[in-house]
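User: quick one, fold this
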Amino acid sequence: MANRHRGEVEAVFGGRRYTLCLTLGALAELETALGADGLAGLGTRLGKSLSARDVIRILAAGLRGGGTAISDEEVAQFPLADFAAYAEAVRALLAATFGEGPAVEPAANP
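Assistant:
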């Protein structure tokens, strides 16, 4: 069960329950992957429209932070049919990490 006080969120993908958490290491990983300059830059970058690649990176980092050994490439193979669950998990994860903000919507040109 996810512990919201630790920034964890729970999500179900493909019938499997996961815990996601953006740990300090996961945030550092995302800074590099998204070309952000520090945590403030990362927050600004994540507050914009997200591409499908961004969603993959955030989910993968969150899954690893939550204890699941998984690569970005494995997350990229998740079925598109569950996209609403992925978008909600990203929204909840970012809200748990940075506070409530705008809804997560995919970019027009992922």
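User: anything notable?
Assistant: The two ends are 32 Å apart (CA to CA).
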